[in-house]
Amino acid sequence: MTEIDIALKVLDHQILDCEGRRCGNVDDVEIEGGPGEHARGSTILVGAGWWPQRAGWIGRVARWLAGNERVRVPWEEVADVEAGVILRKTAGELGLGRGDDRVRAWIEKIPGAHR
Amino acid sequence: MAGRTVPLVALLILAGCNGGTVDRHALENDRKTLDSIACEGALVADGVAHDRTTVVFARVHSDELRIDASNFADALASRATEPGIEREVRRTARHAARIAGVLKRLHEHPANRVVGAVTERSLEQLAGGCS
Amino acid sequence: MSKVFGLALGILAAVGGFVDIGDLVFNVSAGAMFGYELLWVIPIGVVGIIVFSEMCGRVAAVSKKAVFDAVRERVGFKAALGTLIASEVVNLMTFAAELGGVAIALQLLSGLPYRWLIVLAALGLGVVIWVTSFDWIERIFGYGGLCLLVFAVAAVKMSPDWGEAGAGLVPHVPQSNAMVYAYFVVGLLGAAMTPYEVYFYSSGAVEEEWTPKDLGLNRANAIIGYGLGGFFSIALMLTGATLFLGRGIEPEHLGTIALGAEVPLGEIGLVLAIVGILFAVGGASIDTVFSGAYNLAQFCGWEWGRYRTNARAPRFTLTWIVLLALGILIVLTGVDAVVLTEYAVIFSVVALPLTYLPILLVANDDAYMGRYRNGRLANVLGFVYLVVILVVALSAIPLMILTNVGQG
Question: Could you say which of A47, B100, C25, C383 has the lowest number of CB atoms within 10 Å?
Answer without folding.
Answer: C383
